[in-house]
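Aggregate trends can hide what the representation actually does to any particular protein. In the encoding step, the backbone of a single protein was reduced to a row of integers, each denoting a local shape. The record that follows shows the chain in one-letter code together with its fold in token form.

***
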Amino acid sequence: MNWQGALTQRLLDDAAVAAIVEDRVRWDEAEQDDAVPFIILTVIEDSRPRHMEGGQGFRPSFVQIDCYHGGSKLAALTLREAAIDALAAGGVFDGVRFDPLRIEAVRSEKERISGTEVRWRESVDIILFHD
């Protein structure tokens, strides 16, 4: 499995995350019929360092995790922390080796969907070292 598939599976396999989003973990954008809550993963940078003998096996990738929830800010924060906890440990997951998670930034935002409907977004920028 590639690192993006393994990252997705780590989130889906976590009981706390799955209890909130079920299977709604997507790359780049939500599906049209996805209801909140859901998680969107976006690759910000996926460098491919090289050395004299070819590609470096263990490398960093910068990923933005957006946790969307319609219930409340606290519910969105709970989802964000569950996602962080699910990815925090290093190890081998679905054949991909990961270092422990490195958090670069955390942001909050409220989006008004309609006159009264609000959607909360908690974003986390992470660096994953993986092979």
The domain at 3-130 is CATH 3.30.2000.30 (STM4215-like). The mean pLDDT is 92. Helices lie at 3-13, 15-21, 73-87.
